[in-house]
Please model this.
Amino acid sequence: MKKIGIDARLYFQTGVGTYLRNLLHYLPKILPNFIQIFVYVLSKDLEHIDFSESHFVIRGVDAPWHTLKEQIVFYRALMQDQLDLMHFTYFSYPILYKQPFIATIHDVTPFLYKTGKASTHNPFVYEMKHLAFAHVLGAQVKHAKKIITPTVWVKNQIIEMYGRQYADTIQSIPEGVSFEFMQATENSSLKSKFVKPFFLYVGNFYPHKNVERLIKAYKIYSHLDGAKKQEDQLRLILVGPDNMFAQKLKEKVEHEKIEGVQFIHDSTIKDLIFFYKHAQALINPSLSEGFGLPLLEATYFGCPVIASDIPVFHEILDDQYISFDPENIGDIVEKLRVASCELRVANNKLKTIVDRFSFEKMTKNVVQLYNNECE
Model:
């Protein structure tokens, strides 16, 4: 029996959490009988996670990511279990761990776009933490037997950052639409609350997400003669976490008296399905991404996508979306104007894109890596 560990400490988070929940959802159906899986979750999450599969062992560790406990407590837990292979699903990991492991690196954006002035940390403390994170990522790239990235774009970024000697170590395995969306239905009760048509943004509000520029573009769009004459002017719905970055954007909207912008926090899967199904278009102005799950989710529900002209988005959607220069407010305004037409009908062919992506296929490829590295 081979013992493989999976770092699932971010199980209930967005982004990496979606990756983990889908990997662990499909894994029991695909996993060979000779592999036993050790799933490491935060101790506080133990009571909320239940895997009934006999060859799954759940370990609670009091070791959050980016902490000293991660380097000591998590390291000790891994060493005690004497794993044949460990799968770190995030760049933060115990750097003293030198046993065989593979790593999933979802994105290198945090190392290319610092939060900088938007951070609450003292500038010196922030810079020290950023350097520490960069050191951890470098160690992971150097020591991993295999590295998984969600796109070829992220693979190429890692090669550019660390050298071509790692090219054969990195394998691009695309993600997909979460089973959680496939099994849920829309929250139809929202129909009475969102009667007027709207643009939609789904994601975080970090600076590199470029939402501030989107808001500026929306302000200009909303004052265009054509837009002002519309009886039901399209609003801008921004769905994401209520954090410091969101608060700064809210203050800007309030200070500049921008009407038609609404922030939505703590949305459920059912809420998101409603928004995707009824939005005029999903708008994503990001400057950098590792993948782009909201683009696929929107496409799955037939929602047209208008997004940044960046390589990773073209890798996912080809040219089947309307692109704009994310640093050109005038270009964003123009695409919003275009999107105010019957875009949903014209772009329903976008839905065929999702057939190329699947978390189940992803899991099969990950299991193949497990098999190869455990031989």
